[in-house]
Amino acid sequence: MTEHDSPDDGVSEQPTDEDPVRADEGPARTGEERVRTDGGETGIVPPDDETPTWSERKERRQGLARTTYEYFERSRREDQDLREESDYVERDVLGFPTWPHEVVRNLALTSFFVGMLVFLAAALPPHIGAPANSGVTPPTILPDWYLYWSFGLLKLGPLNPDLALLGDQKLMADRTFGVLANLVVVGAIAVVPFINKGSARRPVEQPFWAAVGVFGVILSVTLAALSIKNLLPLDSHLLFDLTFLLPFVGAFITYAALKSMREGYMFELNRRYYRLRPPK
Amino acid sequence: MSLERPDDHDHDAWMEKRDFSRVERMYLTVLIWFDKRLRIVDYLEILEGLYYKVNMQMPKSHTEQYGLDNKFWYWYPLYALGSFSTLAYIVAAISGALLGFYYSPGALGASGDPTIAYESLTFIMTDLNFGFMLRSIHRWAAQVMVAAVFLHMLRVYFTGAYKEPRELNWLLGIVLISLTLLFGYSGYLLPWDQLAFWAGQIGVEMSLSIPLIGEWVAQLIFGGFTPNPATLQRMYILHVFFLPFVVTTLIAVHIAIVWMQGIAEPH
């Protein structure tokens, strides 16, 4: 709580089952005076007397449903407290007007985008090859470009470890290894938000994670190149090595660059931030 | 003087008294007609409540709050990529539905003869008015959608938008990007030309190489251990029936979560 205007506020804020907060005050919200707005109401509609409070509802329930309602009440109170604690200025006009401003802007962007699509379609129409024939294997077999990276992962046979224990036999077939590699890549992407937490947003704030991202981007490109290795005028062993070397090179360069930018960047950012919100 | 009480619910008399314009009268007549039968007013009240609650969830953006938009922040154009992929998806859905009027997924065995699917494609591309353009639009919409989805993922990664409260949407995004690729792959097989056939071969081999359940997966998705007419049939059903429902639903949930959580801006 930042400031208390009326002395009994702290008391009446306490939720009690016998005496709900808003029972005696009608629809007006208790803490309305403390929410600063740039004029007028906040636009938040408080529940009226007819609406049963969460405590009233939960009294009729048992078991999990009751627990759920109890939690809802807690979270609602949490919201309320956070709203009152913050020095956040709520607005009268809650956003950019939808009509006409937002709608016109969106329609313009949409028609431009669809127009680009149609133009592209007219300029570069697709063609169709010979009909399917199981008897003739074409010289190049390729999926669409966006699956090249996955196709490249299927060609990682040389990385498949063979165990001395099994008499230099491979643990799994090369193609199983390739499919597994696909799953590993997707899994690695999936766990990112559970490893990297916190409020940092810009790459400069976390050079390491930016480097990891650049590693991933370059790896997907080099894997795509690996998948079409019979079309590239490059020694296939060199290509294979480059596939895994280039991502590291890119990652190191990114890390070094961001690390050296970081100092000055953070200084600027902090200065601007504290100028706007001087520390109390 | 009549002993009857004036009827408070005589809406027609009220409308006469109020001297509405023609448009207002038409609108009210329709509204009252529906409201007498369905009591829509109750639902309108719910909608009104939702309206205020939704607006309550949309606070000033971080940039606005701290006056950071005095500079052009170079990530902002990239924030359009998500909507671009949605738009491309809509364009692909419309053009795809039109193509579906003329396409039939029949393969008469892969013995070298042209098949029904291939012939319907040649028909679309050579005889049908606007057909070539239609196919071109559909294909390019798909390409652009995939490209936009990839770039969208990169944008989300490099602006750290996947962090703490948004993990769920990141996971949902991974599911969506995989389904998009599946969409593209199943569509790639539909022309049933050489490329499609041998791409199908790769797909069959990939699923066969899954340990333990590989053969079962190949049977389920490809209908056999080599590309065959059943493969084309299944890819068709995946492409026009199964995936559209699933992907459309997931896109709606994805966008709804973005709406609820707000857009994560770099700061």
From TrEMBL, chain B:
- Tell me the keywords, alphabetical order: Membrane, Transmembrane, Transmembrane helix
Q: Per the UniProt entry, what is one GO biological process? A: respiratory electron transport chain
Pfam families, from UniProt? Cytochrome_B
Q: What Gene3D superfamilies does this protein map onto?
A: Cytochrome Bc1 Complex, Chain C
Alphabetized GO MF terms: electron transfer activity; oxidoreductase activity
Q: Which residue spans traverse the membrane?
A: 78-103, 140-158, 170-188, 208-225, 237-260
Establish whether keyword Transmembrane is in the entry.
Answer: yes
- Outline the extent of the Cytochrome b/b6 N-terminal region profile domain: 30-267
Task: Report the GO terms under cellular component.
Answer: membrane
The name this protein carries in UniProt is Cytochrome b/b6 domain protein
Species whose genome carries this gene: Halorhabdus utahensis (strain DSM 12940 / JCM 11049 / AX-2)
Q: What is the lineage of its organism?
A: Archaea, Methanobacteriati, Methanobacteriota, Stenosarchaea group, Halobacteria
